[in-house]
Specification:
single chain; 172 residues; alpha/beta; 2 domains; 4-stranded parallel sheet; two-stranded antiparallel sheet; 6 strands; 37% helix; elongated
């Protein structure tokens, strides 16, 4: 990347030049959108960003995204699926630390499974680096993606692919 382009995105996101790609975002769609912009493309040109934004997982409008420089300490915040996602499907979704690609693909697959009447309250989907089944969970636990599958060897089904594709998810 040319120094002129680097300066422009540093200025756009109000990042000090002594910070290498240092910004704090907690919503994966927004992280991907800003990274896409920094790399010289538009977020709406990347299919998983568009699909995830349209599914309500975050915003890909660069003018509406607030980027905070990491020159100062910040508190750690983990992404969790919006509450409306948990209510949208008749299953449990634990999405602690999920990236927008895994979450977007999971939502797309859940829509297909719901159309086939294959979802129930007895299914728990784990997605993300810190996703863990709740104590006393009953029914089938499905760990989606490499991060969740690696962190949940006790899951009934582990879909250990990155990123998980709809085909691998609808077969679970």
């Amino acid at each position: 990347m040319s120094s002129e382009k680097t300066f422009l995105w540093l200025k756009r996101y109000k990042i000090s030049q002594n910070v290498f790609c240092g910004f704090s975002l907690t919503i994966p769609v927004e992280v991907d959108s800003v990274a896409t912009d920094i790399l010289g493309s538009t977020p709406r040109s990347i299919q998983h960003i568009v699909h995830s934004a349209e599914a309500g997982l975050g915003n890909c409008d660069l003018d509406a995204i607030e980027v905070m420089s990491l020159n100062q300490p910040t508190t750690q915040v983990h992404f969790q699926a919006p509450a409306h996602y948990s209510r949208r499907f008749p299953c449990q979704i634990v999405a602690e630390g999920a990236c927008c690609t895994c979450m977007g693909n999971l939502v797309f697959a859940l829509e297909r499974l719901q159309e086939q009447c294959l979802l129930s309250k007895q299914r728990t989907f784990l997605v993300g680096q810190q996703a863990q089944a709740h104590e006393g969970s009953t029914g089938m636990t499905i760990a989606v993606g490499h991060c969740a599958a690696a962190g949940n060897p006790q899951a009934d089904i582990g879909i250990d692919v990155c990123p998980p594709r709809q085909e691998s998810l609808t077969g679970a």
